[in-house]
Predict the structure.
Amino acid sequence: MPDFKGICVPICTPFDASGGAVDEGKLRSHTDAMLEAGIHAILSCGGTGEFAYLREDERRNVTRIVIEQVRGRVPVIAQTSAISTRETIENSRAAQDMGAAGIMVLPPYFEGPTMDGVRYHYEHIARAVDLPIIVYNIPQHSNIDITPEIFRQLLQIDNIQYIKDSTASLIRIQELVATGGKVFNGGDPIAFQGMLAGSVGCIWGAANAMPREAVELYEHVAAGRLKEALALWRRMVAAQLFFWNHAYNPSIKAAAAVLGRDLGLCRKPQLPLTDAEAKRLRQALAGLHPELERAAAE
């Protein structure tokens, strides 16, 4: 099975001006931009890809487009979650048929099951596809927490080796690393610290706006250049805190626009940042681009 590591971008889904359709041209162009920046893997239809606002046919189309555009240059992982086990299996088989290198799966959300039901869910998905599965833990949205103990049990399933943890807890990252599984950090404000703690990389929405910096940070840490990594992180951290403390997807798309990547607006009811929020975002990005601070002050 492939060895996933490094910076994986949960790629934004661009929409046309009305928000009524996926903008295929922008999606292909943005995919190329991520590859040119050195991103190590791409995740389609993640949270930053607004999967919750996509119809099922749109989700599959986005995954198809990304896989076509990548052309095997890096792994493409498809986020295939659904509330029911049957629908998740259908989504996962479709992703496998399209050529995805792996899948990422939430526990069943909303009216979620017991932990026995969570284990049932992952066991049956794993039996249905021949792909590595990244367990997706974001309890603030799914209302189910994949604790280190539960993850340790899931690691007994043959094609589960990975977890993306989006709790933004450094304690949790260290506990998950101690299970022996492979951990991707999904909490923007601890990206640097999570890598130091032993995560194999980040599945990082902010990389849509700052892919080169995200890759550079990972490569500094991987090579043991911690002084350089810390200096870069200090320039990045204000933006990471902004993203985490504001509406996430509108913030990422707004940051991408400020930095020259037009990804359009989010699908409603996700609303754009207010003028005041946009000004604070420019100030937060000024650590990477000092000219933005001057512009924000005007």
Residues 6-225 form a domain with the TIM Barrel fold (CATH 3.20.20.70). The CA atoms of residues 38 and 215 lie 7 Å apart. The chain has a mean pLDDT of 96.
